[in-house]
Amino acid sequence: MKNPAIAAGVAALALLASAPGFSQSQSQQGQGRAIVTVLPKKATQTLPEITLKNLSLKMDGKPATITSWTPLQGPENEVELVLLIDSAARESLGTQMRDITHFVNGLPPNTKAAIAYMFNGSAVFSGPLSADHAQVLKGLHLPGGSPGSSASPYFCLSDLAKRWPSQDRQTRREVLLVTDGVDNYEMRYDPADPYVQAAITDSVRAGMVVYAIYWQSEGRFSRSYYGTNSGQNLLLQLTEATGGTSFWNQQGNPVSFAPFLDDLNRRMQNQYELQFVSRLKGKAEVQDMKLKLDAPGVKVDAPQQVMVYPAAPAAM
Fold first, then answer.
1. DSSP for 108-121?
2. pLDDT at residue 42 greater than cutoff 90
3. Helical spans, DSSP H, in 4-70
4. The pLDDT value given to residue 302
């Protein structure tokens, strides 16, 4: 090798690679965390005990190692819940205020809640996250926007993900959307809608579990069959990607939110924290996740995408 500087650099890299504590395999290892919901298939059934033996995991199609599986049913497991309401719903949402009030008042003490409204592409909060649920409800009111004032519900969700109102990443971050799911910037149904995909990625990076109640807005397109079908399918895509679920009543608005909110409460009371290690290309990235649960009489809602970070170096 004729260039002394290059030769010295190669030698230095060789020494570094052979030094204690340096491992090429370590640089390819990542770690991640996911919130998983497990429910009995029938409401009358009791949920069996689930251990690591019942679980298998693949990340980006390759087997991954589950390092812990922790139930989150105790009062010490804190939750942060944001109700994000579409401004385009306007006065029609008034029939559901009693159900929303009952739901928020019934949240357990370990749950901090806040109410925000979709407006001009942003999530506008009516108050801070708080465990004082009566105080939270002072911000509940009929949306004051006009049709289309929320721009796109997916813009608003991305904004929430980027500006989550706390810095505590150890709590569960749960979001309930009340919207028709129609993207006013992409009126035709497109499973690859870039704004929906961006909202999914932003939600996954923020560690949010997203749920949605379909509610038609005042816009004419929302009330058409095509608009309903498009909005519901986009919401389903979003919620399943983050480990949540979507609620709707066929083509029209539901008579009551109560059954949906009862189911949401049941889901939040039956969640687990899954921690794992998987292969990583070198920097933090979103990976596809597939969790299999081998237990009779149960159903599992796990996120389809999870953020994976470089694993911390082993202590010497």
1. -TTEEEEEEEEETT
2. no
3. 4-18
4. 98
Whole-model pTM over 0.90: no
The full set of domains in the chain, from first to last, is 30-73+275-310 (no CATH), 79-268 (3.40.50.410)
Neighbour count for residue 274 (Cβ, 10 Å): 24
CB 151 within 8 A of CB 185: yes
Beta-carbon count within 10 A of 309 CB: 13
CA distance 178 to 92: 12
Q: What is the pLDDT of residue 258?
A: 98
Asked whether the beta carbons of 304 and 288 are under 8 A apart, the reply is yes
Question: Mean pLDDT, to the nearest integer, of 254-263?
Answer: 96
- CA-nearest of 17, 29, 49, 10 to 272 is 49
Quote the tokens at residue 91: 């006065």
Beta-strand runs (E) in 134-184: 172-179
Tell me the C-alpha to C-alpha distance, in Å, between residue 76 and each of 110, 163, 171, 290. 7, 25, 10, 28
| Structure letter (DSSP) for residue 244 | -
Q: Give the number of other CB atoms < 10 A from CB of residue 193.
A: 21
pLDDT in tens, 44-65: 788 889 999 999 999 999 999 9
Q: What six digits make up the tokens of 250?
A: 């066929």
Q: What is the average pLDDT score of the chain?
A: 86
Q: Which helix (H) or strand (E) holds 173?
A: strand 172-179
